[in-house]
Amino acid sequence: MSPPVLEVKGVVSGYGRGDIVKGVDLAVGRGEIVTVIGPNGAGKSTMIKTVAGVVPLRAGTIAVAGKVISGLRASEIARSGVAYVPQEANVFRTLTVRENLEMGAWVLPEKRAERLELVYGFFPVLRERQRQRAGNLSGGQRQMVALAMALMVDPTALLLDEPSAGLSPKLVEEMFQIIARINRAGVSVLMVEQNAIQALKMSDRGYVLAGGRVRLADRAAALLDNAEIAALYLGVGG
Amino acid sequence: MLQVLFNGLINGAILAPAAIAFTLMFGILRFPNFAIGAYVTVGAFSILFFDQVAGWHIALATVAGMAVTALVVWACDLIVFRPLRAYPSVSLLVVSIALSLILENIIRFIAGNDVRGFDIPLSRPIKLPGLKFVPEQLYLLGLAAAAMVAIHVLLKYTSLGKAMRATADNFTLAEVRGIDTAKVIAATWLIGGALAGLAGLLAGLDLVIEPLVGWYLTIPVFAAAILGGIGSPFGAVAGAVLVGLAEEVTGLWFNPAYKVGVGFVIITILLLFRPQGLFGQPEIKK
Fold it and tell me: Which chain A positions have a beta carbon within 8 Å of B183's beta carbon?
């Protein structure tokens, strides 16, 4: 069996003195969408930032398609096929949409034109807006630029930190559909989400993170059926 | 009045390349580099060296001097600023003040305190109704304009320039997208250094060359960059012209000895009423 696209083992990280992520194991298989849910402050966002190399790793290992990437700088991790989309400040506001996408293709300049066509196929509105400054776009379109920029590198794994944050319910739906389409095009996805129900519905598997540790890992459908999870994290029932 | 405006424009042209360098460095490195004046002094003296000691033509000496200044500025980063990258900007500002004193005194040690000038033939002033200037002032305007166009093309149309803007806009995101920010930083120092070198030529053409030549430019350069909205090269040029004009126009009423104070007054007024500068957008705080 081929190694998982992304494998996280015993990862510890945090800011300052304390650890926020306290030994997390998780994996994303080829073609999977995996969602991490959990209460605020569970360490979800810190965990995904650690994988992306933005927050330094304190212990554990991270491997992409069997190749260890832990300890590398964020720009080197980006080169290894991991495309991370931060929750906020995820576009270059003073650059045009087109320039943002070009920056997305920084590590793959020879395929830029080809990827640009593909990405405009996913997000036709961005072609229309290509000369506008990203900072002047609406929240939903900005989120699209962020995602589109990440896709410019033809990533093996896409890491999404709250892709639906700050979007209207209609746009949330649209965003999740786009993510599903990207996934069908062969990109494995690891995402952290507050919109737990909607995210789990489109996922293959899910993890529940609390207090910096994985409390539960299961198929997404099973997590959705789990009454205890429903009560605690999905905001359903009592 | 025409003469005053012309002189103001010349002042602005001298300030502009240094102000662009300052603002580019600020955009990427996120601290106000007080050593910008000392870099200009390094530029003036390296061009002077190639011009007078080596005896090269002034054009060739300028190119060589710009290259030397770029390397000195980059070396200063490797030795001084890089080890301190994680420090807050105020610490780096203080370090840059120290660096400027060190550079200035190294120059003093090597070249002495004498006042010098470039080896260019004296030329007859050109007189027009209400305006008198020397041909060097036209070269000066032309060179400053050429530098601005070059920087504009770099930032707008080249991958490196776009990466510099991206890195200045959002450093973490630039890293995450795989941009080699270490290279972008090195390029910023080299380009900023070359601009400072050019500023050394311009200052030396219009003023005299002495170890404090850049020092006198530091405050006006700060004022120009803040006026234009710090981090914006276009704003830096506009700010340079406005500060240059302000220095001359105030000279109509005040003793020119107070010229240096004009920059201070502009900085003070701006920081009180419009800290983002004339063209900058207010910083969005979360």
Answer: none
Residue B280 to chain A, least CA–CA distance (Å): 11
- H helices of B49-129, in order, are 58-76, 89-111
| Contact status, residue A83 vs residue A150, Cβ threshold 8 Å | yes
- Tokens 């395929």 locate to A111
**pTM score, two decimals?**
0.90
Cβ contacts of A158 on chain B, cutoff 8 Å: none
Q: Is A165 on the interface with B (CB under 8 A)?
A: no
Chain A CB contacts of B177 under 8 Å are: 75, 78, 103-104, 106-107, 149-150, 153
Angle between helices B233-250 and B135-157 in degrees, nearest 10:
150
Q: Sheet containing A82-85: which strands, arranged edge to edge?
A: A82-85, A157-161, A188-192, A33-37, A205-210, A213-219
Domains, chain A: 1-80+202-238 (3.40.50.300)
ipTM of the complex, rounded to two decimals: 0.91
Give residue B283's pLDDT: 55
Q: How high does pLDDT run on average in chain B? A: 91
**Tens digits of residue pLDDT in A76-135:** 999 999 999 999 999 999 999 999 999 999 888 888 999 999 999 989 999 999 999 999
Domains of chain B: 2-273 (1.10.3470)
